[in-house]
Amino acid sequence: MPDIEISPLDPNRKDHVELVAERMRETLIEVLGEERGRGMYSMSWLRDRVMWHMDPRACTGQVILAKDRHPEDLPEGGGDIFGHTIVHVEQDANGQRYGLFSTTFVIPLLRRIGLASRLLDVGEKWMLEQGLDRAVTDTSKTNSRLIQLFEERGYEVELKTEEMLRLGKKIG
User: Fold this and answer.
1) To the nearest 10°, the Cα dihedral for 32, 11, 135, 158?
2) Domain ranges, residue 134
3) Nearest 5 degrees, angle CA 130-CA 131-CA 134?
């Protein structure tokens, strides 16, 4: 088991920005299927979206990484990023602010060991630091693993559409 630290993405690490964007694409493919997932957004758009979350002029957000504390010990080309979650502040039609988990990903090899929960803990802590008391995530109704993860953490379905679910809970 690698020695994992949870920390914000450094926007100057273009290799990490690229990897998060690639894994956003992997998530789309995993949940929506190859054709729809690959065709939904260009890689350029995904890279820009990662950077948008770190631009305080555009968004109050954070990209949180689960990475190896000792990447020098990893095999060449293996990558030192094991997962990520992306959070930002949203506002509803009534002007109420809340935190949104826009994506959460853990590499398949390290799933089911609590890494996603650690990422969500840090994401919820970040939301609390922003003065938020509610967290949500939106996902496809077919994304059973993510739905289970959030439900295990006390999130409940707040909204259902034909294709999507919103899960949310009070935090703090």
Assistant:
1) -20
2) 4-170
3) 100
**Count of residues making up the chain:** 172
Structure-token match 């609590």, residue found: 114
pTM of the model: 0.90
Q: What is the CATH number of the domain that holds 38?
A: 3.40.630.30
**CA distances in angstroms from 89 to 28, 37, 93, 106, 149, listed in the order given:** 22, 25, 14, 22, 21
Question: Rounded to the nearest 5°, which phi and psi values hold at 6?
Answer: -110, 125
DSSP string, 27-66: HHHHHH-HHHHHHHS-HHHHHHHHHHTT-TTT--EEEEEE
pLDDT tens-place string over residues 19-70: 999 999 999 998 888 898 889 999 999 999 999 999 999 999 999 999 887 6
Tokens, residue 154: 């006390």
Angle at 126 between CA 123 and CA 66, to 5 degrees: 45
Q: Report the alpha-carbon distance of residue 123 to residue 146 in Å, rounded.
A: 15
